[in-house]
Write a structure and sequence with these properties.
Length: 204
């Protein structure tokens, strides 16, 4: 199996899935304004989806947090705003990503059960191959997000002009926030990058 072939398939299917998701999103958020659109990466890249939040969804979450949570346990506001674990539309329309996740399944099947990849150095162990693959997958996500942006697919009336684009994880630790920051630097305005850095300062 060629790893480069998997990467080509992943980029093609991820772009198609994002385009399809955006067409469905318009109906989901007809009376709302989207401020965040991110590729959701599950558990070490075993699957992908999309998480979205709206200004209205953030307001609702802030009200709920203040009304039901003891003061000493209140989640920092920047976390409510910038972590998809708190967003209104998390991994909705997962079925749109079936073809994307089949490509990832093929990758892991070859990594753990197959004969590996003919275009990756045989001397690399599984962890080293995984590190290499994760770097490529992040670049693929960047390519896709840049493409949907340049194709003017993020110009709908339900989306903010200065939209937060990037990657998200269900559980954000030190490694995950580094990837979020890396992607944000290439896609977002300083306004959003500053918020990512605020999040980074919370993660010990």
């Amino acid at each position: 199996m060629m790893f480069n072939e998997i990467c080509q398939d992943l980029e093609r299917e991820l772009y198609k899935a994002c385009v399809r998701y955006l067409s469905l999103l318009q109906n989901d958020v007809k009376n709302e304004k989207v401020y965040a659109f991110a590729i959701l990466i599950e558990s070490g890249f075993v699957s992908m989806g999309i998480s979205v939040n709206t200004i209205e969804g953030l307001k609702e979450r802030r009200i709920k947090e203040k009304s039901v949570t003891p003061v000493e346990l209140i989640t920092p506001d920047i976390y409510l705003e910038m972590s998809s674990a708190e967003w209104k539309y998390q991994n909705k329309h997962w079925d749109v990503f079936v073809s994307v996740n089949k490509v990832l399944d093929t990758f892991f099947e070859n990594l753990y059960e197959g004969n590996g990849f003919v275009d990756i150095d045989k001397k690399l162990n599984v962890d080293e191959i995984m590190n290499f693959a994760e770097s490529r997958f992040i670049q693929i996500i960047l390519n896709v997000l840049k493409r949907i942006k340049s194709d003017n697919l993020l110009n709908g009336s339900t989306l903010l002009n200065d939209l937060f684009l990037g990657v998200q994880f269900n559980d954000i630790g030190k490694e995950e926030i580094v990837l979020i920051e890396k992607v944000s630097k290439e896609l977002n305005s300083m306004y959003w990058l500053d918020k990512v850095l605020q999040m980074k300062n919370l993660i010990k």
